[in-house]
Structure formats: structure tokens, C-alpha cells
Amino acid sequence: MTAVSLPRSPSRGPLNATHWLALLFLAVALVFAAVAWTTGNGFYLRLATEALIFAGLAMSVDLLLGYTGLLSLGQALYFGLGAYVSALVLRDGAPSFWLATGAALAAGALAGLVGGVIANRVKGVYFALITFGLAQVVAKAVYNTRELGASDGIIGIPQIRVTLGPLALDTADPLSFFLFVLGLTMAVYAGLAYLMDAPFGRTLAAIRANEKRVPFLGFNAWGHKLAVYVLAACVAALSGALYPMLRGFVSPELLFFHTSGNAVVTVIVGGVGTLIGPIAGSVLLTALRSVVGSWTEHHLIVVGVIFMLSVIFLRKGLVGALLPWLERRAAARARHGRRSAP
């Protein structure tokens, strides 16, 4: 019998060039933190922290779009749900980071399971429309619920201390919270990258390539799609749980379509199916909105132009455009090393 091999996931390249880019991003982020701390720029540290939080939402979109071929227009549902659950726990319960994030993850997993069962009954554009509809229904319900603050959202969320064994950091300290969110974001990236390089990720790549043939390989395509949908919901909920710790409030806008749409744009600009691309794209677009927004209120025009240029000229996004060059360089160095070896 001939052995059947699953296709590689998008990020599986020679020498894992995306991982080198992730290490480069981490190094640049640490240098940025040192410069911002030295100059006392707490505003930019807060802005960078927000970019990392929304990078988590973008990674959840990339899990579905880049690895499974499922376009979700409703990931804001799980991001906003995580934010609201975290805000309620911090305001009305114990001001504990672990309790808040644990409750947000549980809510995200449950909502993702329900949403996944509903959305995975259809494919293509209908999947996108159902995810969009689910998010709109929940957003409208939250917007009209007085107990959740209605259109005003929830305010007055206290600052907390995050305990990490013998260490403790204050979310009110811009540098400490930035470093914590940076570490958490890179840990999520590492875990997802490992999972996507494992047989589970290669099965998702097979589903993206040809779902009808996957059962003939002995895999349950529907079960894998449901599993990655729940996983993406948990990643989005975890990111959402960090938002009220940073800003001290949550609003129904976190559940609106523009939040999901911005995440999709971030993934496409950064690089679909790379995981590090959504992180870099989130930082880039957040910085552009801040800079251009200080000049004009029409900053969305600039974001729209960048999106169109990416679709036309950079079909694989910024990271996707860099990967072939990095892989060729790595392969050339490997060949040179083999020739020079005794």
C-alpha cells in the first residue's frame, strides 16, 4: 500500500523562516520597550499593547482563513464576549487575572462550540454570512441589555496585579503590562505554530486544499473544522479578556462588524497562513491609524488604500512576500555550509 502524506500547512517552509521572523519581531519589540521606557512614553506602550491584543484576534482569524480556508466575519463575537466576561469578573467578582481569563476562555469555548456547530453546517460564502449574522445578533443583544451597560458599555473596571509565581506586575504600569502581553502573545504564537506544524495542522491544510478527499485519508473533516473553530474562538476570547485590563472599560463596539473586518484586513495585509503576519500587520495598522488619525479623521481611507495595494501587489501579504527571499537565503547558506564541510 502506498503511504499517503498530508499537504504542508502554509507556514511549513524550509528552516521555518516564519519562526525567525517571530524572533526578529520579539527582539524589535523589546528594543521598542526599552526606548519607550527610557523616554517615558507610556502612551506608545499602551498603544503597542493594544496592537498586540488585537493581534491575538487576527491570529484567530488566520487559523480559520489561512489554515482551513474558512472566512469568518464574526470573530468579534468571541473577542467581545471575552472582554465582557473579563470586565464583569473584574468589576463584580474577584479582581484576579487568572479568574477573569479563565472565565473568558470558558465562555469563548462554549460559544465557539455552539457557533461552530451552526456555522460548519455550510461552506463558502454562506459560512462567512452565518458567522457575520451570529456576531450581529449578539452585538444587538448586548447593545440593548441595560445590565451590561447597553450602548455605554461597562466602565470603572479596576486595575489589577498579575501574579506569576514570585513575581507580580501591575496592569496600570505601561511597561510591565506591555511586556506581559508581549510574552503572552508570543507564547500563543508558539503554541499555535507548533500545532499547525503537527498532524492536526496538516489535516487542516488538506481540508483547505480538498475537503471531499479528507475522509478517504481516514480523517473527520467536520470534526477538525469544529475543533479549529473552537480553538480560534478561545484565542479571540483570551485576547478580548486583556482589553478591559488595558483600557478600563468595554463597549458594544467590540462586537461590531468593523472589529471583525479590521481583523480580516490585518491578516491579509500581514500575510495569510503565517501567524506572525497577523501580529506584524496589527502593529503596522495600529500605528498607521494613530499617526494618520492625528492628522485627519479620514484615516480609514489610508487603511483602505493599503488593503487594496496589498491585494493587488502583495497577494501573500508582507510576511508572505518576505518568506521566499528568506527561504532562498537559508537554503543558499545551507548549501554553502555543506560544500565547505570536510
How would you characterize the overall build of this protein?
The protein has helices at residues 17-39, 42-68, 76-92, 97-119, 125-143, 174-197, 199-210, 221-247, 257-270, 276-293, 299-313, 317-340, and strands spanning 161-164, 167-170. The protein contains twelve helices and two strands; from the N terminus they run αααααββααααααα. With 342 residues, it is mainly α. It is 71% helix and 2% strand. α2 packs across α9 and α2 (42-68) packs across α10 (276-293).
Let me know the average pLDDT.
Answer: 88
Rounded to an integer in angstroms, the radius of gyration calculated over CA atoms is 20 Å
Beta percentage is under 5%
Please give the order of strands in the largest beta sheet: 1-2
- End-to-end separation in angstroms reads 40 Å
Q: What structural class is derived from the secondary structure elements?
A: mainly alpha
Number of helices: 12
Total beta strands = 2
SSE pattern: HHHHHEEHHHHHHH
Residue stretches low in confidence (pLDDT < 50, at least 5 long) are 1-15
What is the general shape? globular
Proportion of residues in helical segments: over 70%
Biggest sheet descriptor: 2 strands, antiparallel
